[in-house]
Each structure stands twice: as C-alpha cells, then as structure tokens.
Amino acid sequence: MIDLIKKNAKSLQESLFSSVGSSVLTIATTYLVINFFRGMLGFAMTSDKDWLAVLNNMQLYMVQAYPEEDFIRVWLSVGLTFVLAGLSIGIWRNEERVKSSQIFNSFFKGGLGVLFFTIIAPTNASFMGNDGSVITEEVLSMDTRLGLLIPVIIFCAIFFSIRFTNLNFTVNSSDMVFFYLFLPVALIWFVKLPTIQLDQNNERIIPEPLMPIANTTKIPWTVIFVAFLASYFIGMYIKNIKSIKSAISLSWFLLPLLIFSWIFKKPQIEMSVVLGSDLPIFGFFLLWGFLVITFVNNSLFKKYYSTYLGVTFLLTIVGVFSGLPMLAKTCLLLIALFSVVVPAVSTSSQGKRSLLIVWAVALVTLTFLLRGGASDTGIVVPGSSIFGGFSLTWLLAIFGTYVSFPLGVLLALGRNSKLPIIRIVCTGIIELTRSVPYITWLFFASVTLAVFLPAGVEFNLIVRVLMVTAFFSGAYFAENIRGGLQSIPKGQYEAADAIGMSPFQKISLIIMPQALRAVIPTLVSSAITAFKDSSLVTIIGLFDFLTIGKTVIGNQSIPVNFVGHDRENLIFVAIVYWIFTFTLSRRSMKVEKKLGLGER
Amino acid sequence: MSIIQTKDVKKWFGDFQALKGISMDVAEGEVLVVCGPSGSGKSTFIRCINRLEQHQEGQIIVDGIELTNDLKNIEAIRSEVGMVFQSFNLFPHLTVMQNITLAQIWVRKKNRAESEEKAMELLERVGIPEQAQKFPGQLSGGQQQRVAIARALAMEPKIMLFDEPTSALDPEMIKEVLDVMKELAKSGMTMIVVTHEMGFAKEVADRVMLFDEGMLVEENTPEEFFNNPKSDRTKLFLSQIL
Fold it and tell me: Are B78 and A499 in contact (CB < 8 Å)?
C-alpha cells in the first residue's frame, strides 16, 4: 500500500510539478478551479435561493401543460422505449466483463469528488438583498461540514481498501445498465424532499409527514424498470430467433413515428371512412406493389417496363392534382418511386422477399400516419401550443436526428452523383438551407410554410418545425458525410466493382461504413448542436425546456410565488443539457474506439 | 478456344489516346504477361477487360459476353473476372475473413458457413490461415496482397487479372506473392499479369506482350521474347530492365 502511494506521488510530481513553469500553472489553475466551485456552491446555498422553484415544477419541466388525463400516453411512450431498449440490450448483449476493481475504483473516485466539494464549500456566502445591500450569512457551519465529511471519508476508505482484499469478481458490462437504472428508481422511493403546500392564508407550509417529491411518478417508473428488466431477459432468450435483429432495428425506426402520433394526436377515427376508403386504397396499392415485385423479371413485363413507368408517373402527376383522397395521392407517389427501385433490387429471390416486406411496412406506416396523424388533434392543452418542456426538446432532438441523418446521407450521395439533375437538386437543397439562418427557417415554418402546402393540408406547428429542422441539420449532416466520402480512396470503389458488387451494395457495405466512421466526431458535434439549437424554437412561441425554466417559472405567481427565481432554474437547465450532451459525446468516443479497431 | 477476345480497342482520356487499337486473344488456361514502360497503356488495357475503364471504340468479348453499357453484362463479366490491384485495396473496416466472404455472401448469395469454409480453404492456399480474424491494417504488404488474391479467388473466377501486383512491395515480400501466383498459374487459371518481374515471365508465362504508347509492340513466347526479340523497341526495353 505504501508502495502504491509512493508510486502515485511520483507520477503526480512528474506530471504536475516537472518544472517551474508547470508548477506555476498547476497552482494557478488549481486556485482558479477551486474558487470557481466555491463561488458556485456559495451561490447555490444562500437562503435567498428557492430551489423548490425547480423541484416543485418538475411536471411543468417535463410536459408543460399536457392534460393530466392523457399522461398515460406519455408513460406508455416512455415505457415502450424502455422495453425496446431492454430487448435490444438483451439481444445484442456483449460478453465484455467489467472487473470489480474498476467498479470500486469509480465509487472511490466519486467519493473523492464529493469529499473535494465538501472541503472547499464556503462557510460564509453573500448575496444581494432586496434593498441592494450585501448580506453575508453562514451557509455551511463547521458542525454540518464535519457531519458530512465523516460518512464521505468512511465511504472513500471502504472502497479504497476493498481493492487490497481478495474480493474479485467480474460483471457483464451489459448487466451494469440495471445498476445505473436501479439507483434512481430506488432513490425516488426513499429520498424525501418536501412539496410545497399552502395554508388558508396562502402562506407556505411544509407538510407533515414529508411528502416525497416524486410521489406521483414512483409507481410508473418502477413499473417501467420492471418491464425493462423483464424485456432484457426476454431479449436474451429470443436472441437466436431468425431475423429478430432486423425486426428490432425496424421497430426502433418506427417507434418515434408511433410515439409522435400517439402523444400529439387523439385520432378521431370514423369507421365508415376507414372501411370505405382507407382499407380499399391500402389493399389496392399493396396488391399493385406485390404484382410489380412478383412479375418484374417476367420477360414480357420487362419489355414494357419503361412504358409502365411512364404511365405510372403520368398517373401520379394527374392524381396529385386531382381530388383524390390524401392517402391515394401519397400512395401513388410512393408506388411511382418504388417502381423505379424495384428492377435494381429484386435480382434475387431474397431481394424480392425483403422488398415485399419493405413495401408492406411502408404502406402500413403511411396509412397509419395519415389516418392517425393528419386528423385534428384531440388533445387540447390550455394556451396556444400543444406540448412543451423537456418532452418537446427531446422530441425535436430525437426526431430531428432521425429524419435528418438519413436525409443527410441521401443528400451527400446525391451531391456526389453522376446524374446531373440529382446532383443539381441536392446541391441546391444543401446550399439553400445552409445559407439561411436557422431562426429564419423557424419563422418560415411558423408563418410561411402553410402557403406552400397544398390546400386542405395543415400541419401542426411542431410538425412544421420538424420539417425545417430535418432539412437544416440534414444539410449539415450531408456536408459532413460528403467530407467522409471524399476521404475514401478510389481504389475502394474499384475493388468493390471488381468483385461484382451492385452499386447499392458498394455504397452500403463498403463506402458508407468507412465514410461514416471517418466523420463520427463531426457527426456527433452536429447532433449536439442540433440538440442545443432546439431551444431556439422559443422564438416562434413554443415552450421548450429552457423557456419553461427561464420564462414560465420565473414569472410564476400562482399557486406559489416563484417570481425572480429564474437563476436557480437556469442552473438546473444547464446541468440537464450538460448531462445529455456529455453522455452523448462519451458514448460516441466509445463507439469510435470500437470502430477504430482496424486502423493502422 | 479463346476466352478473351479484343478487337481494335481504343480509349481516350480527354485528348490523350491511351489505347491505339489493341487486338488480341487469350486462350483458356493461358498465362499472359504484359510489360512495358509506365504510361504505355498496359494497366488501362487490363482495366478495360472488367470495365473499370470504359473503352470507346472496338470490341471486348469475355467468355462469350460482349462488354457494352448493359449493366447486366458488366456484372456478369465482373463475377467471372477476378482482379488484384497494385495497392491491394482491401476493405480496411472488415477483417480478413469478412473481406473474403463479403462478395460470396452478397453477390453469390451463399450462406455464411459455406463461404467461411471457402475462405479458410483459400487462406490456406495463400499460406496465411492464422491471420483470418485480423484487420488488413495489421498485416504486412505481402500478406495483404495474398489476402487480395484470396478475395478475388473466392468468387471462383475463370480469369484473373493482376495489375502490377508486386510493385508496392518490399523485395522480400515479392517472392511470397509471386509464389502464390505461380501456384495459381500451374493450377490452370487463365491469367493476365501486368508486371515488371521478368523472372516470373520467363518461368510461367505462355506468352509475353510489350506495350508502348498505347500500342501492342510485340507478342511472343517467353523464349523468343527474351532471347530473340523481333522489334527494336523490345530490344531497347529489355536492355534497360535486365
């Protein structure tokens, strides 16, 4: 043990105090860092801060004014996501083991962090009083500090000394997920933070006994945790079923669509419309697609395929401008595009089979979205917007990335295409979107976009924002990916050609994986930018996470007066943003490491 | 019966004419060595045979199929013709095993077990079965080139094209690659090899050709080519490299 300390001390000396210059730098930086944290802690602990302004508004933060009787929709969405995540982790469970010493070490480090903050926390802190005078008060007395220090030191000591015992085991790294999730769920049950209640004179009282802050959410979270656990084991059990992996991947792709229409819409479905028009249209186009796929290799059909394509496109153009139902119009467009792709992909029976599945899934999704999503919203929220808070931020970020990433890939490929018309269109889209500020696009979405849509089609403001966001971040993704494409040597294309791969296989198996791997850091920083930029939607009257903290809670006077307490809320918002972006960047570093395996 | 036939093949890069009418035949099982100074069009010519370059005039017929703009024909020919490049062009994001099985699985539609068996067989043939799970970046140049040969052979081609396969290698590694190629030649594979390795030409070639300025200058058996060349250009070429 003494050796260990000596060794550490030596390496510390070498890295921090190797020369006069580095010693000065070390001391100066340490001083600055400690003072920064002292200031922050002092700010957070003075008595004029009302942290209940944050704690009591969790519901507002999460879903804004979403009606309470529809909360079940939100919970179901969250639950479904966790179930799918559990299944995926179970199916793709890796066999990597984490050593117990590593786990204890991270506990030890965490303990050290708390110790550090407890030691440097200021005894006195000052704040500006109402009359402008500076008030200094004691925020952390020596007794409290000692009361905190002793358990923390014991905690650190236990996890430090445990590595000298022969307690050695390994844990599967996938299993660790449960531990990380178990902690917060357990905390919800045991940690008691008071909710504010008012007495007859509208004075705040602290209720007795203490009501835990998460009283209303602890049951749903626990249920979700259990469902997650169960689906993990189910995932492990079913992982050998054929094509289960592609089914799960497909579900991930469809999940946001489902959640989107689920949370936003309470579709008013008239059975007569569904039976009389939707189902026949659906069936007709399903059959059409199936026939095209089945007979595409028939010699007679092949001979007249260009005629067929021409007729289909003509029909589509006529159909789009006629009075057909929306579903029929979209299906026509879809079958026209689909017919172009079919001959290239359906060269083998396997390709045909997957085409059939793709066609069926595409049609089902489209029908579902048009019927469920385009109907008038049934969920009425007080105020102009439907939805806000963290759910909105999260939705904009996830959905933005979901749509814009594939769009970016397509635009990047299109810009590199040999066909001039595709190249010009893609370049045009990219340059047009990039050359206009994002805020301008947001105004465009809120004010102008409706003009460009066909009569009778009206999208919700959030959908319109998503549309411009998809194009905006899609353009940035496209340029990043194009950079990656340019880094692929010509020899890779030639090698793929020489072993007889089709253009589609060449791009998806050889070129794209390498191009994306080369640009992961820029892609992640684009995704982080998109996540943070979603707070700009406040400018067109949507209440995102930041706006709730800054404007809504800062001006809240009923039922409890929180006016002027926006600083606490801003700190909270900043911490939440930081947690998400930091996790994202750490994950991406791991992925990078994993993929970089083959590099020289 | 000739498996490759070219008639008066011409190709331009912009204003520069790279091939000025090449006509030749390659019989099945024949090993043909193509040599010539750099810029003489020899690489361009063999790249035309599997359509990595497009010829503008003339005819190329491979195994009875003519190369035209028809994508079906091009794909059919490419799956008959294996190619080995000067700079290996292995796929760096895939392991050696995946490099060899990829085309079998996706182009030949074989199942995974079958194609992995085939890949191991080929790796044994080129002498590096122990490297199967490594990435190309972890192998030496000679090993990479042997993997590239195995990758081409995995498609069970009738013809193999080698585009200066040893030019990017250290002298010590050249031998290991040439040994594999000699073994391949002896097994009866039809091969067209662009190379400067005259030793290889003497030992295994059935015919040697000399390209210069986009034209086929001389075509001869190795004995005649090296000992009794017909044209002055060949004599000059041989005097410079031998």
Answer: yes
